[in-house]
Specification:
CATH class of one domain: Mainly Alpha
Largest sheet: none
Helix content: over 70%
CATH superfamily of one domain: Winged helix-like DNA-binding domain superfamily/Winged helix DNA-binding domain
Order of helices and strands: HHHH
Distance between the termini: 42 Å
Oligomer: single chain
Radius of gyration: 18 Å
Length: 91
């Protein structure tokens, strides 16, 4: 019975993450958020442009060619797929 998930630990972790999120929201400057969103839009455009030129491109290639981390490239590909913004590439 010592195996599995500890619900008490899960709840404590969730409460901690919510508290952290509220702290971040309290100190977030709206101007910085606008800049971040603008940067993310530009990065997404770079990913889409790369995939138009390299339709078989994957996350590892994106990471190498656009200076991203592998997890960052995975995130962007998943986001663009979810938003249906990829034109057949990015497998």
């Amino acid at each position: 019975m010592g195996e599995g998930v500890d619900p008490t630990h899960m709840c404590q972790s969730l409460v901690h993450k919510v508290a952290q999120s509220k702290q971040l929201m309290a100190v977030t400057d709206p101007d910085i958020l606008v800049l971040f969103e603008s940067w993310l839009d530009e990065l997404e455009d770079e990913v889409k442009d790369y995939l138009r030129q390299h339709p078989k491109g994957d996350a590892a290639e994106l990471a190498d060619n656009l200076g991203l981390s592998k997890s960052g490239a995975d995130f962007l590909l998943a986001k663009l797929r979810r938003e249906d913004q990829l034109e057949g590439g990015g497998q």
